[in-house]
Amino acid sequence: MCQAMVQNGHEPILYAVKGNDSLEGLSKDIWRHYGIRNKFDIHRMKNSPYLKGYDIAIASFLHARRKNVDMVFARNAVAAVLSSLFGYPTIYELHQVPGGRIGPSWLRLIVSGKGFVRLVAITHALKQALLSEYPGWLKNKEILVAHDAVDLERFDNLPSPEEARSKLNLPQKYTAGYSGSLYEGRGVELIMELAGVLPEVQFLIMGGDPGSVESRKEQAVARGIDNLIFFGFISNTELPQYLAACNVLLMPYQKKIEVSGGGDTSKVFSPIKLFEYMASERLIITSNLEVLCEILNENNSVLCDSANLTEWQEAIQRAYKGKMWGISLTRQSRLDVENYTWQVRVKKCLPVNLK
Q1: What whole-number distance in Å separates Cα of residue 84 and Cα of residue 87?
Q2: What confidence tens digit (pLDDT) does each residue in 93-102 have?
Q3: What sign does the dihedral 242-146-265-253 (CA atoms) show?
Q4: HSE-CB of 80 using CA atoms within 13 angstroms
Q5: Could you give the C-alpha distances from 350 to 8, 80, 104, 134, 224, in angstroms and in order?
Q6: Secondary structure in 3-state letters for the chain
Q7: I want to staple 71 with a disulfide (CB 3.0 to 4.6 A). Which of 89, 102, 211, 295 is the partner?
Q8: Share of the chain above pLDDT 70, in %
Q9: Cα 225 to Cα 330: distance, rounded to the nearest angstrom
């Protein structure tokens, strides 16, 4: 989003937590790690484990205030409360309906603040959930729907599956791929079952923390499955090449999906990998979840029951045996994703009069 803001003529400052283990060693190469070409200011702050993020929210607001920013685009509720109440034009992006005892109160303060501009919901399903949860004081016109997106330039001129596999020193076998975390509900268990019934296909698993990857490897060994390849975390810069090595890309989300912070997002989420898959121009086989069908349909993907192993098996076999079958679907998905770039999203989210 920050890069797209730069590309649209803005000067963003990104506020982030300092000392996060996942970012150690990236300070000098953070742009390459995330595939960023247009640089911007990053202000990183230390946080206390005892203050539950309140220190970060306050520090980021105070720094933005000293910088006399024109607008605050926030995903931190407390920072959005402060900027809205103090009259700074404030856009607050939500990925879930605010929960707990205090979440709804923060949202009400944001919306009632003199600086409030709009809410951004990542799906139509989330917008409807918000309107249903808070009838009366939350209005339809105050919520803009903006799905997640992709940087298409990173997916230009991808090699063929065979060429990509050669570059990555992978066997030249028909390949099904999955990228993302290994939390419950992401469908990794289904992929392991598919690997067991489709020994002629190799399955690439890209993503997951080291502990989860090791656990899944042990499960595969215990089941005697030898056509699963686990790569662990792949940087944003390298990911397109790994996706290109696949003939089909799998999105086997289940009806309940855990996230790192807890909770179930299966009804309202907008996975970034959906748009990365579409940009890769590879056949997408996906769970037929209502929220995913805000973007995907029978013209740009193959929709399967999330719990029906046979449907997934037959879809992969059909793609494997009839390689021409998915061409129109992949072409349509690549055309459709042009409406979901980060630059398009920034233009949609920010007010037209913002200089």
Answers
A1: 5
A2: 999 999 888 9
A3: negative
A4: 24
A5: 10, 15, 24, 24, 52
A6: CHHHHHHCCCCCEEEEECCCHHHCCCCCCHHHHCCCCCCCEEEEECCCCCCCCHHHHHHHHHHHHHCCCCCEEECCHHHHHHHHHCCCCEEEEECCCCCCCCHHHHHHHHHHCCCEEEEEECCHHHHHHHHHHCCCCCCHHHEEECCCCECHHHHCCCCCHHHHHHHCCCCCCCEEEEECCCCCCCCHHHHHHHHHHCCCCEEEEECCCHHHHHHHHHHHHHHCCCCEEEEECCCCCCHHHHHHCCCEEEECCCCCCECCCCCECCCCCCCHHHHHHHHHCCEEEEECCCCHHHCCCCCCCEEECCCCHHHHHHHHHHHHHCCCCCHHHHHHHHHHHHHCEHHHHHHHHCCCCCC
A7: 89
A8: 94
A9: 29
pLDDT at position 262: 57
C-alpha torsion sign, points 88, 91, 95, 97: positive
- Distance CA(87)–CA(99), nearest Å, equals 25
Residues 6+ apart with CB under 8 A from 172: 162, 165, 166
Cα–Cα distance measured from residue 4 to residue 35, given in angstroms and rounded to the nearest whole number: 12
pLDDT per residue over 140-165, tens digit each? 999 999 999 999 999 999 999 999 99
CA torsion angle for 271, 82, 5, 206 (degrees, to 10)?
Answer: -30
Specify the pLDDT at position 330: 95
CB-CB contact of 315 with 302 (8 Å)? yes
| pTM greater than the 0.85 cutoff | yes
175-186: per-residue pLDDT in tens? 999 999 888 888
